[in-house]
Amino acid sequence: MKINEILIHHGDDMKEMAKRLLKYSKVEKEIGKDFHVGIKPNLVEAKPASTGATTHVELVETVVDFLKEIGIQKITIMEGSWVGDSTEDAFLVCGYKKLAQEKGVELIDLKTDSYETKKSHEGDLEVCKAPLKVDYLINMPVMKGHCQTGITCALKNMKGCIPDFEKRRYHQMGLHGPIAAVNTILKPDLILVDAMNGDLTYEGGGTPVPMDRIFLAKDPVLTDAWAAKTMGWSLDEIPYIRIAEKLGVGSSNIRDAVISEFGKATRKIDPTTLRGEAKDYGEFVDEGDACSACYATLLYALKRLDEEGKLVTIVENIKIGQGYKGLSFPGIGIGDCTSGCSKSLSGCPPEAGAILKFLKNEDPKAASEEE
């Protein structure tokens, strides 16, 4: 797999999706039989993945099975939950203790791990030793909103590999600089992003958005640039991505990335199951058999519109979904299925940034040109 590749799989069978991407990527060629492989999920707190907070254990199980199939014997799942929460509780609640027992892999609570001082652009940083010792590190973040940085994905997931006192200090340092800097020290070899139902606004979950996709990549900067774009953010709004790029961690150049997509999101959205702000934004939508991918990107765009104080400009509900296919009607539509609307945005699904500009009566193409 090349450094500028992103493999995206849509669908609702996450285990089969992960198997397909891992097989297609041929990453087994870069993992020696005697390697010690580390897996770093996002277990920010003891909440199940259905809340949009944590990495689905099913995805990690698929990766473990893949590693064992290619002959890897030493596998360690490692994480340090956020300050004030118990990693051990998260391992239990999220199904990782059961997984470790069944598969015979090691679990390490990085809160109890020793650490060492590393030089960085932000000065000395303390980093847990366990992730530094592995031969191959797999980063498995959740693509979700964050109350302070806007989004969290691959780059910020490495913050779980530092001691608690250092996590507190990162906030004193402004977060963005040290997040970028720690990625010059901890360099994942592979990134598998859980974007099945990450939270809309908050890293601790509670407002999951069913997006039904995962993606595989090697460059954490490119990964986060893609995640930001998917969620309707520009790179200038997520400073740690730009800083990490300047520090040589990777490239944010999506335009020249090689992006391959597999599968299709066919699961229909049931708006009555949405929670919190996602449910509130759903009040602006007239959905007709909308699939998860299209509906989720619209919700991300409406959230961004709300943050800009412009949600009040939506004076008629937005139509979306396969139920509108082949029909002609007045109003605003999102996605290829609503091409019969008097005003519609094409795409299957359109990107959240393009939807945002469309709803603001700006040129949607500008969203791509800003990359």
What does this structure look like?
With about 375 residues, this protein is an alpha/beta fold. The chain folds into two domains: about 5-265, 3-Layer(aba) Sandwich (Rossmann fold), CATH 3.40.50; about 270-370, no CATH class. Helices cover about 30% and strands about 20% of the residues. The strands form four sheets. The protein has an eight-stranded mixed β-sheet with strand order 4-3-2-7-10-11-1-12, sandwiched between helices. Helix 1 runs parallel beside helix 2, helix 8 crosses helix 10 (about 240-245) and helix 12 (about 290-305) packs across helix 13 (about 350-360). The longest helix is centred in the last third of the chain and has 16 residues, at about 290-305. The two termini are about 25 Å apart. About 50% of the residues are buried. The model has no long low-confidence stretch (mean pLDDT about 95). Pfam families: DUF362 (PF04015). InterPro entries: DUF362.
Task: Kindly summarize this structure in a few lines.
It contains 14 helices and 16 strands. It is an alpha/beta fold and 371 residues long. Helix 1 (14-25) packs parallel to helix 2 (57-69), helix 8 (176-182) crosses helix 10 and helix 12 packs across helix 13 (352-359).
